[in-house]
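Re-run with default settings, no changes from the original entry. Doing this only to confirm the output is reproducible before filing.
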Amino acid sequence: MLQETPLWKASEKEQDNSQLRAFMRYASQRHGIPFANYAAIHQWSVERLEDFWGTVAAFFEIQFSHPYKKVVSPHTPFYRTQWFEGSTLSYAQHIERQFKDQRPALIYGGEKQTTVSISWNALFLRADEIKITLQKMGIQKGDVVAGYLRHHPDTIAAFLATNALGAIWSCCSPDFGPASVIQRFEQLSPKVLLAHQQYMHKGKKYDLKEKITAIHQQLSPAPQLLELDGSLDAWDFTTTEKRSLAPLPVPFDHPIWVLFSSGTTGQPKAITHRTGGMLLEQYKALVLHQEVVEGERFFWHTTTGWMMWNYALGALLCGATLALYDGAADLQKHWDFAQREKLHHFGHGAPFFNASSQSELHLNPKDFPALKTIGSTGAPLSKKSFAWLQQQFPKVHIISLSGGTDVCSAFLGGNRLLPVYAGFLQCAMLGAAVAAVDENGQKILHQKGELVLAQPMPCMPVYFMNDPEKKRYHAAYFERFDGVWTHGDWLEEQPEKGFRILGRADATLNRNGIRIGTAEIYHALQQSDAVLDSLMVDVEQNNDKSALILFAVAKDTPSEQLNNTVLECIRQHCSARHLPDQIVWVAEVPYTLSGKKMELPVKKIVEGQSLDIAATKGLMRNPNSLDAFFAFKKMRGNPH
């Protein structure tokens, strides 16, 4: 019933008052096209790129310091496409134009501190002070400013200062190990390293001075170092001054920031995004697909090392108040934070909501009167979690997003005009020509295929650092199929309900020639209260065959009966061909810092690879979890 009946649908009034409907009316008037429904405007958005992206720029009143000659000149591969040629603009300027005297720009809370409200006045005063410091350190347009920083107001201010100077931002979270930070920043040759001296996690304070010293000493050439103590003593919360950052306009393709791929199995890719592409994409994604509007309060739990930190900055573009929580993802504390701060938009990784649905939490919707959307990303949100959230909050729009660091946004997301079905992402977002294709590159429906994009988007990277001939860029997205972007996810499209993400293509399971997405297994097991978490890998063996091994976390003591329960659950919700050859009970499943299950590293470990090849502990949320997999490999023996 969960799949057949919509969990939620906006009222006709809510649909008519939505930002998405307003955009449809605007586009219709601008181009003389009557868009009957979302499907019609989406088709137009991916077929008429010039008209669509030009309309996005006009609808959001993008301020070009120098006008563009042409919206788009498409080419294949997509990285040869030219966007808004000749134009200049500033991301920070578009945030600054939302300045509201004495209105909160930020709300900042954490594990052991009272929540602080920070005005636009205070934010821009602090940002300008950091900008002046960076100028004294010689930072100019095109220089890289690297951060080893917490999810803290100082980090927001430092980004605004960097961007206002036309410099390039890149940041790692303090829970990254020094080797992982060096591996990233050495690709960028930053001129300045900003670093917080300590951070808090799960009630414990961690001193970072030794790590900062190690990072600083091993980067060559050595950047200038600016350390921050993490207090708010340098902030003037009472100021009424209206300080401008005087942002420097830069070309549309000028890098805004460098994000990094996970790097769990090799050198992370230095994914460089264009300023104009991020500006347009964030307006489109947050306003049209998540209905973020001026004066609302937006929260997404993240660290500074995950693309959701950069994505959440877009709330400031919308004139919303950005809520920050500095600390661990504690279930009760985060829901309390949402309640206490009267958040309108509450975003988190899917594991948080899956854990919430398995807990004893009981949330009263009357305690969350402002809550408008709940956003989930990082992994597929289970049907059980969809249903649990909707039961807790009957009137709230649950939005599951899927995209990635590659585009610092989502391809699939929310839609106020469409119903929500449990386990489904509602739509391909405007401008995203998403399709599931078979092994011959042909579009398919109601079947699992590879996720591709058939048209370029301005949020696609402008380049990778240190990849002048774009060889790594081309290999990452354009070698699998000609003329399209291949993202690396398994996808199923059901036009009447939406899309399902079925796992990573690089962690595909193969049973007698039939490819199985791991998310199908995880969705099935999430229907059972006896299994808290799971991870499945397809492991090569000496006989040229492979074995499906399910690693699972039990709620109670494992037993033969529990094994049979697991098998029956998979058989019932998937099929007999999805059944594992072996079930191994472990204490915990390994995750990256951004909350993704480490399927490929576990596969490599079980197949006999060493830790330095299979995974990078400094990028893991729970590195000690790997011990169980090495122990299993030793017991099993090397299959090669």
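The mean pLDDT is 92. The chain is about 30% helix and 25% strand.
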